[in-house]
Amino acid sequence: MTQDDRRAATAKHWGLADYSGLARRLEPAADALVNAVAPKPGDRVLDVAAGTGNVAVRAVARGAQVTACDIAPRMVQLGRERTGPEVQWFEADVENLPLPDATLDVALSAFGLIFAPRPEVALAQLRRVLVPGGRLALTAWTADGCIAERARIVKEFVPPIQPLPTH
Ligand SMILES: C[S@@+](CC[C@H](N)C(=O)[O-])C[C@H]1O[C@@H](n2cnc3c(N)ncnc32)[C@H](O)[C@@H]1O
Known about the structure:
The chain is an alpha/beta fold. The relative contact order is 0.16. The protein starts with a helix and ends in a 10-residue tail after the last helix. The protein has a single domain (3-141), classed as Rossmann fold, CATH 3.40.50. It is built from seven helices and five strands, in the order H-H-H-E-H-E-H-E-E-H-E-H. It has a five-stranded parallel sheet with strand order 3-2-1-4-5. The structure holds S-adenosylmethionine. The site of S-adenosylmethionine (SAM) has 22 residues, from helix 1 and helix 4.
């Protein structure tokens, strides 16, 4: 599978279901994430793998200048409808962000960055677009929680994914 195949499959997958119910259930995590980082008015904030914008709307409420990206066109569409023009949305794989170097103060991701198949590539991208001293914060599932348990069960029955090419 090439990177392009992987991107297309991921974008399609996340666009299939009605995501709104899950987004509502994840709102407490978005609250915790944004409260922990406390973006200041005027901070340039990116909501990474933003889904329908749970984090983006909270950063806007604090006066930040917010952009949001997601790999799935459907998520970007739903996010735009939710936030209106206060958030600049774009489609992007977190492993290949179409942003200039050193142009963000804060990057946030609620249960989004964790899906990057090559975390080191995604983190390098975020480091590139953050200004020196910029901040990155994310939420992730714990290794002993029910989501990790589900992943262990799936792994028992689904064949392993082929390793991706590194470039
Ligand atoms: C569990 S949802 C979380 C969405 C949102 N952050 C929230 O808190 O509701 C995961 C999101 O990650 C996006 N995603 C998955 N892989 C991605 C990638 N490589 N680059 C960008 N977005 C990605 C999906 O399209 C989906 O919207």
